[in-house]
């Protein structure tokens, strides 16, 4: 029995594949989560991303998500810059005590990963009394933020280097800005890479 198609010309499983693909941009895993056979997931993923109607739906979903979340590549870069440039001293008073959270500047608060608070006591039994609180701040990893920014700017390279046309730089594009044809190309490259890795393991 043929699966019923939705308004976009996709079957329910194809539509599910498109939604699942946005989770991690891994077509093979998306195929499995959408209900396709795990044994043939890679082949199914390759075939799916070659279909023009699938490509159109992926592009539509990516564009809708970007509008809905208001998160773009620029948004991510701005947050990384904030983490890399945060001045930790702005979280403390001149005497070294921690400022109340509402008095810490917003850009510093956004760099805080967690806050721990411990109540301190002295004495024992009936004489035990609270003497104050100790609070600890943990900030997001500044080194990691700098590393990610450096990679975006092309400052750090892995041992294997690649170049664009005529030896020029490779133009990078955020995943949410890929065209359907580029998505299909990414999946073809992913498939070839996984096949090479698999042959290496079996050898």
Q: Could you characterize the architecture of this molecule?
A:
The protein has 203 residues and is mainly alpha-helical. Strand 1 and strand 2 form a beta hairpin. The chain starts with 11 loop residues before the first helix and ends with a helix. The protein has a two-stranded antiparallel sheet. It folds into two domains: 100 residues, Terminase, small subunit, N-terminal DNA-binding domain, HTH motif (Arc Repressor Mutant, subunit A), CATH 1.10.10.1400; 70 residues, no CATH class. 14% of the residues are buried. The model has no long low-confidence stretch (mean pLDDT 77). It is built from eight helices and two strands; from the N terminus they run ααααααββαα. The longest helix is centred in the C-terminal third of the chain and has 23 residues.
Outline of the structure:
The protein is mainly alpha-helical and 203 residues long. The chain has helices at 12-24, 27-33, 41-50, 52-69, 73-85, 106-109, 142-152, 180-202, and strands at 112-122, 129-139.
Q: What percent of residues adopt helix (DSSP H or I)?
A: 40-55%
- What's the number of domains? 2
Instruction: Note the gap between the termini.
Output: 43 Å
CATH topology annotation of the largest domain: Arc Repressor Mutant, subunit A
Uncertain residue ranges: none
- Biggest sheet: strands, sense, closure? 2 strands, antiparallel
| Helix count, DSSP H or I runs of 4 or more residues | 8
Radius of gyration (Å)? 25 Å
- Could you name the CATH class of the largest domain? Mainly Alpha
Strand order of the largest sheet: 1-2
CATH architecture of the largest domain: Orthogonal Bundle
Helix-and-strand structural type: mainly alpha
Shape verdict: elongated
Element-level helix/strand string: HHHHHHEEHH
């Amino acid at each position: 029995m043929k699966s019923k198609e939705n308004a976009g010309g996709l079957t329910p499983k194809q539509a599910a594949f498109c939604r699942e693909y946005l989770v991690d941009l891994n077509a093979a895993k998306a195929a499995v989560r959408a209900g396709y056979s795990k044994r043939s997931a890679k082949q199914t993923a390759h075939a799916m991303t070659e279909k023009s109607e699938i490509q159109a739906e992926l592009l539509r979903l990516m564009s809708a998500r970007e509008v809905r979340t208001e998160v773009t590549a620029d948004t991510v870069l701005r947050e990384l810059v904030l983490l890399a440039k945060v001045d930790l001293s702005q979280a403390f008073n001149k005497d070294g005590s921690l400022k109340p959270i509402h008095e810490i500047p917003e850009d510093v608060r956004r760099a805080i990963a967690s806050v721990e608070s411990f109540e301190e006591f002295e004495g024992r039994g009936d004489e035990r009394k609270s003497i104050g609180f100790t609070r600890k701040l943990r900030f997001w990893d500044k080194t990691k933020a700098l590393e990610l920014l450096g990679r975006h700017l092309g400052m750090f390279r892995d041992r294997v280097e690649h170049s664009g046309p005529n030896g020029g730089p490779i133009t990078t594009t955020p995943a949410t800005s890929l065209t359907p044809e580029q998505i299909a190309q990414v999946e073809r490259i992913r498939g070839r890479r996984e096949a090479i890795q698999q042959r290496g393991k079996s050898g």
